[in-house]
Amino acid sequence: MGIVYYITIMRNAERTRQREQVFLRLQSFDMPYNRAMDHVMNNWTGKGDYHSFDSETRVNYNFITTRYQNIGVMLREKMIDPDLLYKTFSPRAIISLWEKSEHLVRDNREDNKYTTYMEDFEYLYIETKKRYPDIVTWKQEDS
What we know:
With 143 residues, the chain is mostly helical. The chain has one domain (2-142). It is built from seven helices and no strands. It has helices spanning 2-28, 31-43, 55-76, 82-88, 91-111, 119-131, 138-142. The radius of gyration is 18 Å and the shape is elongated.
């Protein structure tokens, strides 16, 4: 009886994991994500501070960075498969947005004594950069 129960639990856990993977994949194709990413990447040079953003850029920036923060949590906690993650979300977009955002995050950490602010987005960036070290970013393009 115990073996049947264990097998049932394992099958249910695998189905749950598969549903979560599909949900993650669908998130990368949803219109709000794509519109927000397009707006941020095309309307913000990466210079200036957060308070210089117009309202629409600020909302879109928060939407994308919060999504990447949450994905970073899932990656750190091994709740998502890295191979699926990088098939779903563009490694170049993750790397570029972090590199554009890094000074904002570091300023926020320092100004607000919030040392863990966006640490999981940073973790996502570090892991992505390890996996894709040759991706050319906006910093390299501007040089």
